[in-house]
Amino acid sequence: MTKEAAYILILPSIHYVLKVEKEAKARGIPIELIPTPRQISTDCGMVVEFRGAYREPVLALLAEKEIPAEALYRRNGDGFEAEPLG
After folding, report:
1. 3-state secondary structure (DSSP) of residue 36
2. What are the pLDDT digits (tens) for 10-44?
3. How far apart are CA 11 and CA 55, in angstroms?
4. Where are the beta strands (DSSP E) in the chain?
5. Domains in the chain, please, with CATH?
6. Would you say the pTM of this structure is higher than 0.85?
7. Helix, strand, coil percentages for the chain (3-state, nearest 5)
8. Pairwise CA distance, residues 41 & 59, whole Å
9. Residues whose CB is less than 8 angstroms from the CB of residue 51 and which lie 6 or more positions away in sequence, other chains included
10. Total Cβ atoms within 10 A of residue 47
């Protein structure tokens, strides 16, 4: 069995991270808030992590609530690959 992909969503501020957390919980979308991985950015901060099955619902949430996103990454082993937001 293959391991499901994990995605990392970078948002412009902790305000938006917390807004995504609130909206995701209200919709039953399981997410986790984690420290920003050093491979992505040396800035301190939090990012949203979620499983691949929830990619489309999370992106729909961003569009519906007009939440700006800076970047989306997919975990690739110990690294990360940039993914399109749209």
Report:
1. coil
2. 999 999 999 999 999 999 999 999 999 988 887 77
3. 15
4. 6-10, 31-35, 46-51, 71-76, 79-83
5. 6-83 (3.30.70)
6. yes
7. 30, 30, 35
8. 21
9. 4, 5, 6, 7, 30
10. 22
